From TrEMBL:
UniProt-annotated binding residues for substrate: 9-16, 22-23, 61, 88-91, 99, 115-116, 159-160
Active-site residues annotated for this sequence: H10, E88
The keyword Signal is annotated on this UniProt entry: no
Species classification: Bacteria, Pseudomonadati, Pseudomonadota, Alphaproteobacteria, Hyphomicrobiales
Organism from which the protein derives: Methylobacterium tardum
Protein name per UniProt: 2,3-bisphosphoglycerate-dependent phosphoglycerate mutase
Subunit structure as annotated in this protein's UniProt entry: Homodimer.
PANTHER family named among the record's database cross-references: PHOSPHOGLYCERATE MUTASE
């Protein structure tokens, strides 16, 4: 039984390119983001991966990444489950602001705490802890049972919704998660043991046109 779980952060979005806090705002992918999504799909196919189920958020950048990746794998007809629980962290009043402008206004330390810490909320928004409080129950009830039944599962989501999940999968504490970066368009491949712990983890990063 494979018990395969693959996590992919969406490709570069227009607001990633513009260095804006995005959160629950809904910009589309850039040309580079489209290329990253397609490249991830080609790489996964070349490595022999396939999927029985796919999950994504209610935001277009993740949905489009998922669709493009599956199309490159020849799995364009695979049913995809969309759920708000996998949405990016809500940045509240920071949404739409340039990150450099935010640092100039509030200082590097405060913006770093809002972006990277586990339990510090930006004004009107969610901390990573808050994000985990919706991501993890959904993972346990909707995604994990598919994996444990032997299905090969893809999750295409966001930097912070995936950070919350990887924090638990990799058994990171609040200090370690501060340094955790999830790269756009780079698949994280997990194989689970029968007790749901991690048997193996692989980061599939490629060079050039072959992958991210």
């Amino acid at each position: 039984m494979e018990r395969l779980l693959v996590l992919v952060r969406h490709g570069q979005s227009d607001w990633n390119l513009k260095n804006l806090f995005t959160g629950w705002r809904d910009p589309d992918l850039t040309e580079r983001g489209v290329a990253e999504a397609r490249s991830a799909g080609r790489g996964l196919k070349r490595e022999g991966y396939s999927f029985d189920a796919a999950f994504t958020s209610e935001l277009v950048r993740a949905q489009r990444t998922c669709a493009l990746l599956l199309e490159e794998m020849g799995l364009g007809d695979l049913a995809v489950v969309r759920d708000r629980a996998l949405n990016e962290r809500d940045y509240g009043e920071l949404s739409g602001l340039n990150k450099d402008d935010a640092r100039a206004r509030w200082g590097d330390a405060q913006v770093h705490a809002w972006r990277r810490s586990y339990d510090v909320r930006p004004p009107g928004g969610e901390s990573l802890k808050d994000t985990a409080a919706r991501v993890l129950p959904y993972y346990i009830t909707a995604i994990l049972p598919r994996v444990m039944a032997g299905q090969r599962v893809l999750v295409a989501a966001h930097g912070n919704s995936l950070r919350a999940l990887v924090m638990v999968l990799d058994r990171l504490d609040g200090d370690a998660v501060t340094d955790l970066q999830i790269r756009t368009g780079v698949p994280l491949v997990y194989r689970l043991n029968a007790d749901t712990t991690i048997a193996a983890k692989t980061v599939l990063a490629w060079d050039g046109d072959a992958g991210p």
